[in-house]
Amino acid sequence: MISAESLALFVLACIALGATPGPNVALIVGTSLKHGRQAGILTAMGVNVGLIAQLALVAGGLAYVVEAFSRHFDLVRYAGAAYLVWLAVMQWRSAGKAVEAPAPSAHAAFGRGLAVAFANPKTLLFHAAFLPQFVTNTADPVPQIALLAAIFAVIALVGDMLWAVVADKARAALKGRFTLVADRVSAGILVGGAALLLAAGRR
Predict the structure, then answer these.
(1) Which parts of the chain span the membrane according to its record (predicted)?
(2) Helices 73-93 and 121-130, axial angle in degrees (round to 10)
(3) Distance CA 17, CA 11 (A)
(4) How far is 19 from 115, CA to CA, in rounded Å?
(5) How far apart are CA 108 and CA 90, in angstroms?
(6) Which residues of the chain have pLDDT under 50?
(7) In this predicted structure, what is the pLDDT of residue 68?
(8) Cα–Cα dist 135/115, whole Å
(9) pLDDT of residue 97
């Protein structure tokens, strides 16, 4: 069994990671600022389904999948960065228009989150290195890694939902004549997410 001290340290580390903005958070915040809470939450759900899939691969010990992501590390993150830039351009072009661009459908918002989650191979590699550090039973690590992955997934989902809600509150505050500012800030955040992906190294 994992000790209470190790588990508490793991939870604190997960909270700290969830509070650190990255490409996933950039997409969630940018979407909420532009299209509101519902679109942001659906995007967060897509991000976290992708995260859960990655955690499942790590918990299942599928080393060959992690290795495949590692081999194509640059290609995957370049594609993800290009996608975020494309979204940013679309948001910038529609900024401040009298007729607001329609919010993405539920499937589209969810799909965006899922795509960006898988476009960051560093997340998968990080989990493959991070979770085993808290395992005490090295002879049969899978159950403990699965437990840690589940805890991480719950904390990440709650954190991403909070990012979506906070961004929606900011959007409400910037309504009216500040709509142009909100739209362009949203586009800028997405570009920032792309920059973070491009800056990501293997270590």
Answers:
(1) 42-66, 75-92, 145-166, 178-200
(2) 130
(3) 10
(4) 21
(5) 14
(6) 98-99, 202-203
(7) 64
(8) 30
(9) 59
